[in-house]
Amino acid sequence: MGNGNISFTFYLTVFKEQNQFRYFSFMISLLVYLSIIFFNATVLLAVFKEKSLHKPMYFLICCLCINALYGTAGFFPRLLIDFLSDTHKISRQACFTQISVIYTYAVSEYTILTLMAFDRHVAICHPLRYHSIMTPKVTSVCIACAFLYVIFYLSLAIYFLVSIPLCGNEIERLYCSNWSVVRLSCVNTMINNILGYCVTITTVFAPASFIIFTYVRILIICQKMSSEYRGKALQTCAPHIVTFVNYSVASFCDVALSRYDLGKYQVVALVFSVEFLVIPPILNPLMYGLSLPDIRKKILCFFHFSK
Predict the structure, then answer these.
(1) 188 within a domain of the structure (yes/no)
(2) CA distance 164 to 277
(3) Number of compact structural domains in the chain
(4) Would I find Methyltransferase among this entry's keywords (predicted)?
(5) Interatomic CA distance for residues 288 and 299, integer angstroms
(6) Phi, psi at residue 291, to the nearest 5°?
């Protein structure tokens, strides 16, 4: 352990510089969080209440919405408390819990997007075999395996994180993150770094490569279709492509900026560091709710706007 100590409390230092904007930031954050809850809950309600939407594609959309609600629940309530607090401290247990929730959300987003890409690939490239391949049982097993895969890697990362001795307790972020805690270590963190790269490769780059491969295959198949069928196929894929690109950019910004001290560009770094927790949870339900006719019609019925 060396001279390291086990810190029982961490301090989120970035809030010290935001005191003059604390109430404004609180109101904006609260509005964003309530919007996320409303948009995702609306899509979930539309799918669960409409039996015609009980299909693999829509169940995976529900998983995306549930994951958004789960991930933002690990970020926004704590953020709102910190905006109104004068101490900005967080216990060791609460910090590691927040890391677990946020990183489970982050990795699960990619696994769900991978399953959605596979679903679209089967539907478009093998339409006659779709119902025999994407059965409810197969879909359930795939979702369960995806989440077990996430939990395994996260448990491994948290185990190594908890075991390292720390020589500081100040975190320069809006929330607890794995790398911000590792940087406080008194000892060499090579094992944590290697594990971090392995987790990134297996949970980000591997799924992203598979998603890109499936869409290359889909585009090749679409070239052989009639213009009408091609339009319908691409319409069902468009929300997923936008979601994948948006989340990939947000994740890249968080990973890239978290390891550097940007000095006077600290505000920019803070904005990009929370983008993956704000933009996808808002954009995804809007994309699927507005782009897919079946969901859009059901949502309009809720608000009595349909004919």
Answers:
(1) yes
(2) 27
(3) 1
(4) no
(5) 11
(6) -85, -35
Q: What does the DSSP assignment read for 168-226?
A: --EE-SSS--HHHHHTTBSS--HHHHHHHHHHHIIIIIHHHHHHHHHHHHHHHHHTTS-
In a domain, 239, yes or no: yes
Parent domain of 109: 9-306
Residue 3 in any domain: the answer is: no
Q: What is the overall mean pLDDT for the chain?
A: 84
**DSSP H stretches of helix in 10-135:** 22-49, 56-73, 76-84, 92-125, 130-133
- Greater confidence (63 vs 203) lies with 63
For 306, other C-beta atoms within 10 Å of its C-beta total 11
Its pTM stands at: 0.88
Q: What CATH number is attached to the domain comprising 290?
A: 1.20.1070.10
70 pLDDT tier (thresholds 50, 70, 90): very high
Domain membership of residue 244 (yes or no) is: yes
